[in-house]
Write a structure and sequence with these properties.
It holds the Pfam family EMP24_GP25L. By secondary structure, the protein is an alpha+beta fold. It contains 1 helix and 3 strands. The protein has a 3-stranded antiparallel β-sheet, with no helix packed on it. A hairpin with a 3-residue loop joins strand 1 and strand 2.
Amino acid sequence: MSQLQPSVELTITNHRDSLLEKAPLTANASFSYVVQYAGEQQICFTAIEIESSPAIKREIFFDLDAAPLPKQTDDKLGTASQIQRLVQEVDLDQMYGKKRITELLEVGRKVNKSVLWVGLASIVAAWAVVFVQNAWLSMQVKKRL
């Protein structure tokens, strides 16, 4: 019979909304979070049962660093939102570029196929002309003999 072992998910919320869901962990299984405005911050650890998971000891440590509050937090929040907007614009530009390259490659493939077929048709037409001319010349030679 398999035994269920808990796994931990992390969520950080404040009085407004969820700030960080399923916090991305670094290689040493840690995360960092900076609070830029006052208010209640709740850190929630949720245990999830995972079947046939090995027994793991889970320890949670907090290192709190206090720094002087910036004089204008709105400026930092505005800068962060501006950076986020720029990142979204860059993502959209990259998606557009990727789609454009894909379409150009598709057009290139179609053009290559068209050029190949036109080239083959030209070769066939040239050989047909050669055979027709040879046949005509041989008929002319036979008439004169």
